[in-house]
Fold each of these.
Amino acid sequence: MTLKKTFLPLLIALVLAFFAQAQELESLIQQGDALFAQRAEPAKPKEAQAKYEEALSAGEDAFGANWRLARVKYWIGDHTADKTAKRQIFLQGVDHAKKAVELGPDKPDGHFWLGVCWGVYGEAKGVLKSLALVKPIKETMRRVLEIDPAYDRGGADRVLGRVYHEVPGFAGGSEKKSLEHLLKAVEYGPRVGLNLLYLADTYISLGKIEKARETLESILTMEPEPDLIPETMEEREQARQRLERKPFKKK
């Protein structure tokens, strides 16, 4: 009887401690997500990163923390001017995405952000110097298409469309395939500015200038997705800049 009286409170305390730890961890990731939602403010992405790292250190939900770290590394790297620092940040994103893939091989998040971080690292390094990344990027995005083709509002088709556009023909590039993937991406995400920017670039390469103009102009007038307002504001500026260049500039 005495043993039961001693053991029961201890068991209850352990259970309560476990749930308290889980609740605290969830709160850390939620705090990170709330900070990432404010990513238009320069300091917020690094604050979000710190929260995700804190959650990761707690030893729980490593999958969720790692893919979010890959995502925030992508954002921070994309807004870093120094090329060397940019490449290093993207590689850190690659490492976190790889861990997410290991922990959640049947979930799209890790695969998607792995391909994205590889892609932007390749752009920062130089396309011709990064041709070895083309195959693994395509493989990660095809895996996303198998799991959830709508993920990130057509994210896999968006990345594949851009890869086929950027890569030279001798290395597997194809404007026709680029167009196919980007049109599919727009089906999933008609109000995703990056889908439309990439589609416009491919239209230009195919000589479809009026379609490119219409696509760019649609970015300026569309209603932004509520969770993509920071991206949409940047993409509108990019659309304006493109419309000021050849072949759109009036003679």
Amino acid sequence: MRNALIHEPQSDEQLWNALKQDDQDAFAELYQRFHATLYSYGHKLANNASLVEDAIQDLFVDIWRMRRSISSADSVKFYLFRSLRRKIHLLSEQEHRFETADVDASNHTADSSIEQLLIGQEQESQLTQRLTQAIAQLPLRQQEVVTLRFYQNFKTEEIAQIMGITEKSVRNTLHKALTHLRDQASYLAPFIGLLLFWLLA
């Protein structure tokens, strides 16, 4: 009898459709589910914690206010990432604090997920530190593409739509980033080589 009361977690799309029907619990669940991920991504676009938090809050306020008119989302995650990027651009321009795509990202740290993807389990502590330093030297535009592709698992076409650039630009930017990492960090060459082969296949 107890098992009958256990409900399977709803998918992102199910929650999205529920909030469109004025379900406040679904709205709250989506917020809790995506807040940390959105904040991590937003912080790579603007090194300003309060601005990123404001952008996230504004985004969800807009979603709730327009819940009955917003379209159905094939990918809620994609919709949120693209919308947050626009919000951050808008708020940053208003405050004249937006860091352009070519600004050096030396003060940014890389996501542990891309580190795990590249180095696996071998000499994790030492390699993680070196890789973090290497990725931190990438221009912000390259770091964003790497994050979206390998950390958030977005497809090339989705990254292009999120960033407002062409798919060719996404591939070129990712290729430059991986090539730079390979050249600057010789100990990562085998891993980067495999990723480049996969990318260009």
